[in-house]
Amino acid sequence: MAKEFKGDIKLDVRDSVSDWDAFLPEKAPQGAPNVLVVLYDDTGQASWSPYGGRINMPTMDKLAQNGLTYSQWHTTALCSPTRSTFLTGRNHHLNGFATISESSTGFPGYNSHIPPSNATMANVLRDAGWSTFWVGKNHNVPIDEWTAGASKKNWPLAQGYDRFYGFIGGETNNWYPSLAEDNHYIEQPYSPEEGYHLSKDLADQALKMIRDVKQTEPEKPWYLWFCPGANHAPHHAPEEYIAKYKGMFDDGYEAYREWVLGRMVEKGILPEGTDLTPLNPMPEGTFSPTDEVRPWAELNDEEKRMFSRMAEVFAGFSEYTDAQVGRIVDYLEESGQLDNTLIIYCADNGASGEGSPNGSVNEGKIFGGYPDDEEQNLTMVDKLGSPDTYNHYPTGWAAAFSTPYKMFKRYTYQGGVCDPMVIHWPAGIKAKGEVRHQYHHSTDIVPTILEACGVTFPDTYNGVEQTPLSGVSMKYSFDAPADGPTAKETQYYEMLGSRGIWHRGWKAVAVHGPVSGISNFDKDVWELYHADVDRAEAHDLAADHPDKLAEMQALWLEEAKANKVLPLNDLQIIGNPKDYETFVGMEFHQPVPPSGQFVYYPGTSEVPERSAANVHGVSYKILAEVDLTPDSQGVIFAHGSRFGGHSLFIKDGVVTYAYNFLGIPPEDRISAPVPTSGKHIIGVEFVKEGMGQYREGIGPLKLYIDDQQVGEQKIRTVLGHFSLCGEGLCIGYDSADPVSSAYPEPRFEFRGGEITKVVFDIADDAYVDVEAHLAAAMSRD
Prior knowledge:
- Helix content is about 20%, strand content about 20%.
- The protein is α+β, with helices and mostly antiparallel strands.
């Protein structure tokens, strides 16, 4: 709201009195704290050393020893939804984030567009006098706004952040990330060979932002949301950090569960007598088979070696990133800012079971709707964590790192929603090294920060009446008894068809796995737990308390209607090709022009996959108008990475189209000699004649130069996506991690000639006259 001008205006400035205060921004209250929120991904409580886990987190340990560790802090079970609650303080469906941005659909609770009635905390803090920064993972920009030409009203700067540096989607390659700065995409600053890793880069950028503020406005507090790629797949780490954990997981995930439960009790995270839940706790037919855990004793020696190595890589990734957070904390201590910085160090959901029972060396196969090949995976064991892999551990480690709870990420059992959190603020918290058992949720973070900062959330913002905050402040717990009562009364849960509700110490959960394809929600069996007593949800009391269960089920439905939870979606995207096809059909797709043609140009930013011409599961034609010389060489177009994609390029006098099917060797390549100098049209046509077992497209691929067919072979194409996000369509170059192993260098930029345009045609008409076809496309440009 504009300030009142309190000066005096006369005809002559000499007789007038100015009032600068009317035009200057608000200042934060005297002594207001800085705020640092560190939000990891995909991490169960039993992973980290402050909770008794084997993964050493020296920075988090230091903060826990001088702050508070929360044993009953909860999230939504998935990343985008949880992050949306950190943005606004409202439940995830109210934010339109029932699921991740990449799988949003056209329903009120599912569209990934945060409504104006849910203004962000960053806007409120910035207006109150804080500098605001967001570094790292975003995952809250709607999928339809990822492109360079899209509106930026839902990008971080428009959500109240002064600066942003990180990646827009749900994950990225930590060696070759897809980066954005403020409102535009950028190239990574240097290569892995020069020492690059995303976690290090993000810490560098965060430190720069804080220092920039402190050297110009030393009294101004700041709020930094630091969101590393860790611990989301792909699990990438320097070898020296991976080596720290060699042999530490050789006893297997079942032994780890037994060991870590004792440690969690010893540290006071869990009460004495907490029972360990079964490794596979759900009845057959109530969850997706891809979430099953293979008993360690049934693995052969090669599998045990690979599974152990996958856990070692994950651990190294986590500790390496903690070391980067440590650089920020060390700077705060050296500069005298640490005592009055409220630090919240936590994770956004439980450990991830998305690696399937056997793990994966290329998680992209999940997004392509294609199963892993364990035999191929075993050949890559020594390369896990390196740029050669896009790895994810098996479900067994997800269960282990979620000890003692049932299941893991995506499930509304504790394994999916009960996560680690440490809070450190010496100026505001007297207690040190204590555990807090009050029940809280990610919606409570915004109210907590606002109360600590002395800021009130407005009833209206930019003229829009605001939805009340869904959460409650946790600040009362800072100096409360460890077992004191919680200020929270009710919290519903829903994720991909999995449902639960907590109310005054009791919790009900539907026995219905996420993405299970079961449907029949009205026929689900529900379980009932006295959560205050049975923290692991090990003892179902539904038969003993049918009235309490009925009360909880009714309360869940009431909350669901109030929070825009319906309709429920449990489509099984892995192992059920029909559901996968339905799911893909519901996602956002770039509207196809009436011609079926998309035109792209050189000298432009890469186009995100969900907004590029869709070549998945369809017939397509690609026409490149080029002006060649004897020195022409490089990429004409590329889309994807070494883990899946396709590319058209010229090398050593040969033009080649390469289709890399989800990183599974060998690549399909079709080649011909480069034509003589001058203007030419190089064309590719794929005709989908049928589908394979996993709905992959199968048919002939033809290569054309001008109006002559110069090659043909049968290939298969991906139904889903080359990647979850990033690795978009590039004209005249490849992104840093190349599609084809034939490239002699990263990017392999086109030179020695000119690319005029590249046309992607996904209309159904046949490839007849390539020159006439291109002319028609140009006439509609």
